[in-house]
TrEMBL record:
Assigned GO CC terms: extracellular region
Annotated source species: Canariomyces notabilis
UniProt-listed InterPro entries: AB_hydrolase_fold, FaeB/C/D
GO molecular function: feruloyl esterase activity
Protein name: feruloyl esterase
Biological process terms in GO annotation: xylan catabolic process
């Protein structure tokens, strides 16, 4: 009897594994020899030349559907600065917001470059840039199209928020670091898994703006609002909203810091770990 149970369990586990493997939505680029490598490219979007970088995982395999993670730079930043990383003691970010070392080679990174070093998204042109990048990269590389993510700091957070509003069926989750509504919110009525972090001492984009962005997805995702508003302690404080629709969590991290993607608890810059924890819950 016990053996039969064990066998049944083993079969169930195997079946679940197979179902999971089948459930990955393999993009048209799966099986192709990759035509993109770790470098800068240009594409035309609405008649304008737009630049972006690609970063492949080590030992890229064309038969493995990878996560696709967009990393948007801040105002005055650039795609090149996201690739290189910037002095984190002066408000800069780690390369690709610190995610590659955590991702265990499970992700392809896309780093778009903004017009005038920002994401004004005039007439939706930056969302169109995103659409074209998703299509192009999915055609050339093996992507799990259910696992497309976006993150960014400040204007890059605003752009990630704009994508959550306008492309809720494309982005699985976003991580908005010290954002505000600066790139618009076309649509904005559908649920999207949402991670936000903000500093109460933010002197550039105040914390109430960050809370407003969060609250749109607290509503859309059907989560229970938290009252009173969470406050930072000696370290950052993480709130996981309850009651959200299955698959649409909201996590909020409040800290005492200023406008900075690289705030620390002790020696640890906490945005990368929090973002990766949030993104990697989807598989
Ligand atoms: C990293 O990925 C490899 C290959 O997919 C896997 O075998 C390994 O267990 C992963 N390591 C960790 C720490 O998750
Ligand atoms: C936060 O910033 C917004 C936009 O600049 C401004 O309208 C609002 O009054 C500010 N709120 C607080 C509490 O400072």
């Amino acid at each position: 009897m016990k053996q039969i149970l064990t066998l049944t369990t083993a079969l169930a586990v195997l079946l679940l594994g197979l179902l999971n493997a089948v459930a990955a939505e393999s993009s048209p680029g799966c099986g192709k020899t990759p035509s993109l490598r770790n470098q800068q490219y240009t594409m035309t979007v609405n008649g304008k030349q737009r630049q972006y970088f690609i970063k492949l995982p080590d030992n890229y395999s064309p038969t493995r559907p990878y996560r696709l993670i967009f990393t948007y730079h801040q105002l005055g930043g650039s795609a090149q600065k996201i690739v290189n990383g910037e002095d984190t003691n002066r408000g800069g970010a780690l390369p690709y917001y610190g995610l590659p070392p955590l991702s265990n080679n499970s992700a392809i990174f896309v780093v778009p470059n903004g017009l005038n070093n920002g994401w004004a998204n005039q007439g939706g042109e930056d969302v169109t840039f995103f659409d074209q990048l998703v299509q192009h990269v999915s055609n050339e590389l093996c992507v799990d199209t259910r696992l497309i993510f976006s993150t960014g700091f400040s204007y890059g957070g605003a752009m990630s928020f704009a994508l959550a509003c306008a492309r809720p069926n494309v982005v699985r989750a976003v991580a908005v670091l010290s954002g505000a509504q600066l790139s618009g919110c076309q649509g904005g009525t559908q649920p999207v898994a949402y991670y936000g972090q903000h500093g109460t001492a933010d002197s550039v984009l105040n914390v109430s703006g960050g809370r407003q962005l969060r609250d749109r997805f607290v509503r859309n995702n059907g989560c229970t609002p938290v009252n009173p508003e969470p406050q930072p302690g000696a370290t950052s404080v993480k709130t996981r909203y309850q009651g959200c629709k299955e698959g649409y969590p909201v996590t909020w991290v409040i800290h005492r810091g200023d406008h900075n993607p690289s705030e620390r608890d002790g020696n640890t810059i906490f945005a990368p770990g929090n973002t990766w924890e949030f993104f990697s819950q989807f598989s």
